[in-house]
Amino acid sequence: MFEACEIILLSTSSASPQPENRTEIMVKTFRVPATKDKHTAYKDTLKKIEEGKRRRFGHEALLLSPVYRIAISTAASLILILLLHLFLFQQHTFHSGDQSNTFRLPDQSRVILSSNSTVRYSGYFWNRKIRLEGEAYFEVNKGKKFIVKTNEGSISVLGTRFWISEDIHQLTVSCFEGKVSFDNKQVHQLIAAGTCARFEDNKLVSRTETTSLYPESAFFSKQFTAENIETVLAALEDFFQVSIQLEANKTYLFSGKLETANLESALKIISRSLNLDYSFRSDYVIYLTEK
């Protein structure tokens, strides 16, 4: 009967191990069962090493094969296309509910959405196209053509202020600054500032002049009584969609009524009342400071 023993395989090279022959040159210690002689155990050990090398080389050959590389490249491209599709074609929706809602579009155009109305636009907003259901007031920044789509047709502008009200088979467009164009399959109408046009069943039914500079929905109207100025400024920020930074060492209380569609008019009233100064750092960032 054979005694259990150990077989030790030693490297005969003094060079640093290379990744491809590391298995052969590293020291291996095997416990030989008592039922095997040393010669048989040694042959079994070499056989296992060779099998391991063949498996590793086969895996590396698969990684280097043209078919494998093409498959990986195709899968990566499909994932990229899917991510771009999700980003570009994702729909952004604003719904006002029971109260009006003010927000800015990606191009910084301002929208006052009347109650129970909806605006939708896609992630690729560089085409400046939106969908309106209901009623909204727009202050459009200058740029490429801005298009509002409704069930009755499309309103196109380059940079202006206008108001749209859509109902079943009816559409009213009022322009307060610049010009807008209304188009559908049967009608093409240019609407200049100071003009209100009403369409019904794809026909122009009335065209009137308006002396108002803003629609009613564009007015900020609130009464304050000994209100902390920070609360007043927060209300203005929300309505006009700007950032107002207050730099003051004491608490200011404001009393009065603010009723205006122009942010600077509101800032003038507050500044004169509380002896403060205001300055625009950009179109959407204002600083309010002590004199």
From TrEMBL:
Pfam families: FecR, FecR_C. This is FecR family protein. InterPro entries: FecR, FecR_C, Ferrdict_sens_TM. Gene3D superfamilies: 2.60.120.1440, 3.55.50.30. The chain crosses the membrane at residues 67-89. One of its GO terms (molecular function) is sigma factor antagonist activity. It comes from Mangrovibacterium marinum. Residues 224-286 form the Protein FecR C-terminal domain. Keywords: Membrane, Transmembrane, Transmembrane helix. Residues 98-180 form the FecR protein domain. The keyword Membrane applies. The keyword NADP does not apply. Coiled coil: none annotated. It comes from the Bacteria.
